[in-house]
Specification:
The complex is a heterodimer of chains A (about 250) and B (about 600). Chain A is α+β, with helices and mostly antiparallel strands and about 250 residues long. In chain A, about 35% of the residues lie in helices and about 15% in strands. Chain A contains ten helices and seven strands. In chain A, the strands form two sheets. Chain A has a five-stranded mixed β-sheet with strand order 2-1-5-3-4. Chain A has a two-stranded antiparallel ribbon with strand order 6-7. The termini of chain A are far apart. Among the domains of chain B are: about 140 residues, Succinate dehydrogenase/fumarate reductase flavoprotein, catalytic domain (Flavocytochrome C3, Chain A, domain 1), CATH 3.90.700.10; about 130 residues, Methane Monooxygenase Hydroxylase, Chain G, domain 1. In chain B, strands 1, 2, 6, 7, 8, 9 and 16 form a seven-stranded mixed β-sheet that branches. In chain B, strands 17-15-10-18-19 form a five-stranded mixed β-sheet, with helices on one face. A four-stranded antiparallel β-sheet of chain B has the order 11-14-13-12, covered by helices on one side. The longest helix of chain B has 25 residues. Classes of the chains: A alpha+beta (about 250), B alpha/beta (about 600). Chains A and B meet through helix 1, helix 2 and helix 3 of A and helix 3, helix 4, helix 10, helix 13 and helix 15 of B.
Chain lengths: ~250, ~600
């Protein structure tokens, strides 16, 4: 029986180290399977999050051989076998234990974003007329499974730790989904510019590269949002009107 | 030992569709609400739902109305469903779906700009509001994003191990935080269980680690009735290859979009065996079935869209009789529709993007080019806590249940799409009536002795010496899953069911001997040991109920009683914890159906 060697990060906020485990390989196995096998057979208290095991819930985010990945969608067979496979927790968030990080900062950010505010219904039964072509873009953003791999890879958060000034790609996508929702009447542009730090993104597209849902975060969400924000803040015609009317 | 205390009007255990909808409703009425999530908020199993939400919106076929949805649900449940719940569900689901749109959900659209609806098994008309094949994600995210602004408190990664009682009444719960291992005690005027299903009792399942039936077991141990526990839905189409993905769900939406089930001889075997109850509604030929899929109003449903219980049994038959696929399933082919429609491959990717991605990434299969291999997977439990159809209160005062852990709506077999609507309709009701109950009765008194007992019970696996040679709780769980799959699975009989009951007792004794290593901080070994008690209780309930029902009906199939029995059609099997702590089984007669509803059934039968 073929085996694989994994170096799994074990430890908590006070410190830790990679520990080596060897486990049996079966056909089609994903990294999460290997982690579970190690947990059941060798390390009962190995901490790892998972739920659906099908790339739909976004719980099992980790760094596999240094790459931000969903462990449930990363096949062992696609990784080089001549050296141990490293599995470690996401770096942009505080470590809880082993592969589990504290992602609660994301919840706090979401609460700060102005919620959906629809226009009054078009029909008496409380429904609206919306066409597929009007919602294709928003549906792309709503595919997000909140795995936070985009947050993990974003250097503004990962290296510069600017969590207080910048909401990260996930919540720029979230803003974009709201701002481009055909029924929404709220305006979030000033928040984006001031408290949410959209200007800090310098479009390196790392987030788009790691998104397991294939959302084109930078091109479809962030850049159009940046344009809207700029239009609002620096529109010369508007400035002139403001100057004349005093409003 | 750190124990934090929390007081709320309403405590909701479980944060999937039902729990979140209940939390929104209870908060709207001004109640102080605690929402306890076993995982992180937004990761509950609802996220896995693919096909859609059933509601008679009549957007695609204007002939649809609540009466037909009601009749379809009753027929699908083989007339064991609680007719009052089926009525409420059919009437209220359209409003609940529109409400999601008001909160930001973005469903796929019809050409005239309304919510699009798709075909699904057992539904007379296209009825499922959906977003591609990720409807559950859309639903949970909408509820979550709306919910976080409603003022309830969430307790994430917190697991409840015991309900606390004041006399007969449930007044709180005891649990632990996964992260720290510290304990929490909740005191509340009313408690809602919304914990979902128990698929983890079986080896091959579409369910996540969380689905250990905590609510079923918590309610049962607090003295509430469980009903219909013999009815476990084995979804006909789970992945079968490679081994590591066995059981992962393949949405019924594939068949709703025209997917064909074929055996190794290339035959559309579903057309060979059409149950009498569905003969009038089912196409005679694949050709007629395809016309139905493409909107011909005179055509009847393809045989692939028969109910899940029947499709699962047909697949098992094909495999058993040697006409299966290489890895012990059958073939599900959606690529064939390319012959029928232009840009077929693009159409498939647009309608079923998650399935395309799932097979490509996990099985190296391009579903626009070749068939999938599929076989039954444990998916859903129709049985659960007996509730009042209007208020969702269990048979114990102060305790409510909604969603999969409650029973009644689905009878002997659930129709696809009726689960998401169930969560919304009865989640809303549970929230409303639990808040009213709390308002009327105030908070009960917690008894310190019960808290101390719960604390000791939770710590036991960490404190006792392991006597299983280090195999630990995982080994017991795996053995239970293997045994349940084999003996309480799709096909059952007296002998093996009796063995199952005995083996569950033996495994319970072994579970009490397992110790776990490590400390209380995010220790999955410890969590598994504590979940085991729920799994064992639920497994016993399933096995005993299956033993009791001496007929085959819906999802319950007995080799020794292969036919439906008219008399059994009038009974539900009830399980209740006896005063000696043993599980008692009894039969309760079903209440006679209201005359006007009976007429609806006859009219649409």
């Amino acid at each position: 029986m073929a085996t694989a060697t994994l170096e799994i990060w074990r430890g908590d906020a006070t410190g830790g180290e990679f520990k080596e485990y060897t486990t049996e390989l079966t056909e089609g196995m994903v990294v999460l399977d290997a982690i579970h096998q190690v947990q059941a057979e060798q390390a009962h208290d190995l901490a790892v999050r998972w739920n659906c095991k099908a790339g739909k819930c976004g719980s099992c985010s980790a760094e596999v051989n240094g790459q931000p990945k969903l462990m449930c969608m990363t096949r062992m067979g696609d990784l080089p076998t001549d050296r141990p496979i490293t599995v470690e927790p996401m770096k942009a968030f505080p470590l809880v234990k082993d592969l589990v990080t504290d992602v609660s900062w994301n919840d706090e950010v979401k609460k700060r974003i102005k919620p959906f505010k629809p226009r009054p219904p078009d029909f008496e039964d409380g429904s609206w007329e919306m066409h597929q072509s009007d919602i294709d873009r928003v549906q792309e953003f709503r595919k997000c499974i909140e795995c936070y791999l985009c947050q993990d890879v974003c250097h503004v958060l990962r290296e510069h730790h600017m969590h207080d000034e910048f909401i990260g790609p996930r919540f720029l996508v979230y803003n974009a989904a709201l701002e481009m929702h055909p029924l929404d009447t709220e305006d979030r542009r000033e928040d984006l510019r001031k408290s949410q730090g959209i200007g800090l993104c310098n479009i390196t597209k790392c987030c788009t590269t790691v998104c397991p849902e294939g959302i084109t975060i930078t091109d479809n969400a962030i850049i159009p949002l940046k344009e809207r924000v700029v239009d609002q803040a620096y529109d010369p015609v508007r400035k002139l009107i403001q100057l004349v009317t005093g409003r | 030992m750190e124990v934090s205390r929390h007081e709320h009007d309403v405590l909701i255990i479980g944060s999937g569709g039902a729990g979140l909808r209940a939390a929104i409703e209870a908060s709207a009425g001004g109640a102080s609400v605690a929402l306890v999530c076993k995982s992180l908020l937004g990761k509950a199993h609802t996220v896995m739902a693919e096909g859609g939400i059933a509601a008679a919106l009549a957007n695609v076929d204007e002939r649809d109305r609540w009466e037909i949805h009601f009749a379809d649900t009753m027929r699908g449940g083989q007339y064991l469903s609680n007719w009052k719940m089926a009525e409420i569900h059919a009437k209220e689901s359209p409003g609940r779906v529109r409400e999601l749109e008001e909160w930001g959900a973005v469903f796929d659209r019809t050409k005239d700009g309304k919510i699009l609806q798709r075909n699904f098994g057992g539904h007379a008309h296209p009825r499922l509001a959906h977003v591609g094949d990720r409807t559950g994600l859309e639903m949970i995210r909408t509820l979550q994003d709306h919910g976080v602004h409603q003022g309830f408190d969430d307790y994430q990664e917190c697991t409840v191990t015991r309900l606390l009682k004041d006399g007969e009444r449930v007044v709180g719960a005891f649990g632990y935080d996964r992260e720290s291992g510290n304990f929490r005690v909740f005191q509340a005027g009313a408690v809602i269980l919304a914990t979902g299903g128990l698929g983890r009792a079986f080896k091959i399942t579409s369910n996540s680690w969380e689905c250990t039936g905590d609510g079923h077991s918590l309610g049962y141990h607090a003295g509430a009735d469980l009903i219909d526990m013999e009815f476990i839905q084995f979804h006909p189409t789970g992945m079968v290859w490679p081994p590591s993905v066995r059981g992962i769900l393949v949405t019924e939406g594939v068949r709703g979009e025209g997917g064909a089930l074929t055996n190794s001889e290339g035959r559309r075997f579903m057309y060979d065996d059409i149950p009498p109850l569905y003969v009038n509604q089912t196409a005679d030929t694949p050709e007629e079935g395809w016309r139905y899929v493409t909107g011909d109003r005179d055509a009847r449903r393809p045989a692939e869209l028969l109910t899940r219980d029947h499709v699962a049994r047909c697949i098992v038959r094909e495999v058993k009789e040697g006409r299966g696929s290489p890895h012990g399933g059958v073939f599900l082919d959606i690529s064939w529709i390319k012959e029928k429609i232009p840009n077929g491959a693009e159409h498939i990717k647009r309608k079923l993007p998650a399935m395309y991605h799932q097979f490509k990434a996990l099985a190296d299969i391009d579903i626009t080019e070749e068939p999938m291999e599929v076989g039954p997977t444990t998916h859903y439990v129709m049985g659960g806590l007996r509730v009042d159809p209007d208020t969702q209160m269990c048979t114990v005062p102060g305790l409510f249940a909604a969603g999969e852990c409650a029973a009644g709506l689905h009878g002997a077999n659930r129709l696809g799409g009726n689960s998401l609507s169930d969560l919304l309709v009865f989640g809303q009701r549970a929230g409303k009536y639990a808040a009213a109950y709390a308002n009327e009765h105030g908070r009960g008194t917690l008894e310190e002795a019960q808290i101390e007992e719960a604390r000791k019970e939770a710590l036991a696996p960490l404190e006792r010496q392991d006597q299983t040679d280090g195999a630990g709780p995982y080994a017991v769980q795996f053995e239970l899953q293997d045994m349940m799959q084999e003996k309480v699975g799709i096909v059952r009989e007296e002998g093996t069911l009796s063995e199952a009951v005995e083996e569950i007792a033996a495994l319970s004794r072994r579970a009490d001997l397992t110790g776990v290593t490590g400390d209380r901080k995010f220790n999955p070994g410890w969590h598994t040991a504590l979940d085991l008690r729920h799994l064992l209780t639920n497994s016993e309930a399933c096995a005993r109920a299956a033993l009791e029902r001496k007929e085959s009906r819906g999802a319950h199939s007995r080799v020794d009683f292969p036919d439906k029995d008219k008399e059994w059609g009038g009974f539900t099997v009830v399980l209740k914890r006896g005063s000696d702590g043993n599980m008692e089984v009894r039969r309760d007669a079903l209440p006679p159906i209201r005359e006007d509803l009976q007429k609806i059934i006859e009219e649409h039968g």
